[in-house]
Write a structure and sequence with these properties.
With about 400 residues, the chain is α/β, with parallel strands linked by helices. The chain is built from 16 helices and 10 strands. The strands form 2 sheets. The chain has an 8-stranded mixed beta sheet, sandwiched between helices. α15 (about 350-360) links the parallel β8 and β9 (about 365). It is elongated.
C-alpha cells in the first residue's frame, strides 16, 4: 500500500520538478491550476508530522523538496481531490450543479430570445419568467424596467444584445454582495454560524473547516448547539474527520458558556480560527433569538470585536421565505455574511437575486452538494453565466 502511494504521489508531483522544460502549451497554465498547486503546497508545508498511520512523500531532488514531509493517507486523498476539483473549473461545476435552476430560469429565458429580433411582448414574457423563477416582484421590476429603458433608448432590436444586457443587469445586482470573507490576522478569528433548523449549518461548518485547513490555518470548533445531543456528536465527528479539536459540554449546558470556554481555549492555544455552532431555531421565537444575543454579548467580554463574523446559513430551496428569515436574524444580531446552501437541489435559485437586492448582506459562500469540496466563494459573474449555460 505504501509503495503504491509513493508511485501515485511521484506521478502526481511531476509538475513540481523545476528542471523539467515546459513546452509552449505547458506554459499556458490557467489560474485555476496554479491555485490548486498552491493549495497543495500550503497543505504540505502545514501538515502535522506527529500523526500515526502516516506515509512518506519521497523527495525527488534536493531542489524540489528540501525535507521529507509526512501526512496521513486520507489527507493525501483530500489534497489531491481538492486540486482536481479546482482544475475542473468552478464554472463547469456550477453549470452542472445548478441544472434545476438552469432549466427553470436560464433555458426558458433563452427560449424567449429564439427570434433574432425582439417585439413589444418580450418584456412581459421576461417578467413572467423571472417571477416563476422566484426572483420576486420588486427585483423583477427593477431588472425588466432597466432593460426596457436601455433597449428603447438605444433602439436595440437584436435579441442577442438584449439577452446580454439582461445578464449584465443580473450580474450588477449580485456584484454588490460579492464580498469574500476576509480573515484578518488575529487569533482567534471567531465565526458564529446561525440559522433555522435544517438549513445545513453542520455541513457548512465542515466545509469551512476543510477550506481553512487547506489554506494552512489551524481551526477549533465549539459545540454551541447543546439542545440536541446528536448535534454535539455530529460536530465531534466533523472534528475527528478534519483533525481539529472540538470544545463541548454535556447536552443541555449553557451554549454561551460552551462558546466562552472555546474562545479561551483557542486563544491560549494560538488557534487561527474558531467556528462556533449554534442550535437551529425559528426566526420568530423570541427566547431563542435572545440566546444568540447572549452568546454575542459573552464573546464581546473576551474580545470587543468578537464575533468577527456572523454567518447566516440560508436554504435556497425555500426561495422568498429566506428573505424574512434573514431580515429578522439581521435585525437581532447584525449578520455580516450569508452562506446559501442546497443550490443543487432546487429550481428556486433565482431567490438569490432578491436576497442580494433587498438585504445587501455579503454572500460569502454558496454550497451545492454533500462533498467537502462542494462549496465556493460567491462570484456573481460565474453564477449568472452558469445559470445561462446551454450545456447541462
Amino acid at each position: 500500500m505504501l509503495k503504491n502511494n509513493k508511485s501515485k504521489l511521484k506521478k502526481f508531483f511531476s509538475w513540481f520538478n523545476p528542471k523539467k522544460k515546459s513546452s509552449k502549451e505547458e506554459d499556458k497554465i490557467d489560474a485555476i491550476d496554479l491555485k490548486g498547486k498552491e493549495v497543495l503546497k500550503k497543505s504540505l508545508l502545514n501538515c502535522n508530522i506527529s500523526h500515526k498511520n502516516e506515509c512518506m512523500i519521497p523527495s525527488q531532488t534536493q531542489d524540489n523538496l528540501t525535507c521529507i514531509k509526512k501526512i496521513k493517507n486520507h489527507d493525501i486523498k483530500s489534497i489531491i481531490s481538492s486540486v482536481n476539483y479546482e482544475k475542473k473549473g468552478i464554472f463547469s461545476i456550477l453549470a452542472k450543479k445548478l441544472s434545476k435552476t438552469k432549466k427553470n430560469l436560464g433555458l426558458k429565458i433563452y427560449n424567449l430570445f429564439s427570434k433574432k429580433e425582439i417585439d413589444n411582448s418580450i418584456f412581459n414574457n421576461i417578467s413572467e419568467q423571472l417571477l416563476m423563477s422566484d426572483i420576486g416582484l420588486e427585483t423583477t421590476n427593477i431588472l425588466v424596467n432597466a432593460l426596457e429603458k436601455e433597449v428603447y433608448f438605444k433602439n436595440i432590436k437584436n435579441s442577442e444584445i438584449v439577452l446580454s444586457l439582461l445578464k449584465k443587469n443580473m450580474i450588477d445586482i449580485l456584484k454588490k454582495v460579492e464580498k469574500p470573507l476576509d480573515i484578518i490576522p488575529k487569533k482567534p478569528f471567531s465565526i458564529l454560524i446561525v440559522g433555522v433548523n435544517g438549513v445545513g449549518k453542520t455541513s457548512i461548518i465542515g466545509k469551512l473547516t476543510h477550506i481553512f485547513k487547506n489554506e494552512g490555518k489551524s481551526v477549533m470548533l465549539a459545540a454551541g448547539d447543546t439542545f440536541r445531543a446528536a448535534a454535539i456528536d455530529q460536530l465531534k465527528i466533523l472534528g475527528k474527520k478534519n483533525s481539529v479539536p472540538v470544545i463541548s459540554q454535556q447536552s443541555g449546558a449553557d451554549p454561551a458558556a460552551v462558546i466562552f470556554d472555546a474562545f479561551q481555549a483557542a486563544k491560549s492555544k494560538n488557534v487561527d480560527i474558531l467556528i462556533a455552532d449554534t442550535a437551529g431555531r425559528l426566526h420568530n421565537k423570541v427566547n431563542l433569538m435572545e440566546e444568540l444575543k447572549k452568546i454575542k454579548r459573552v464573546l464581546k467580554k473576551l474580545d470587543h470585536s468578537a464575533p468577527d463574523e456572523i454567518i447566516l446559513v440560508l436554504d435556497s430551496c425555500i426561495g422568498q421565505n429566506s428573505i424574512k428569515q434573514a431580515s429578522i436574524f439581521n435585525k437581532e444580531l447584525g449578520i455580516t455574511g450569508l452562506a446559501i446552501t442546497k443550490l443543487d437541489g432546487t429550481s428556486r435559485g433565482g431567490a438569490i437575486f432578491s436576497i442580494a437586492h433587498r438585504l445587501s448582506i455579503p454572500i460569502r459562500y454558496i454550497s451545492f452538494g454533500e462533498k467537502m469540496e462542494d462549496i465556493h466563494h460567491f462570484n456573481s459573474k460565474i453564477f449568472v453565466n452558469a445559470i445561462f449555460s446551454k450545456n447541462i
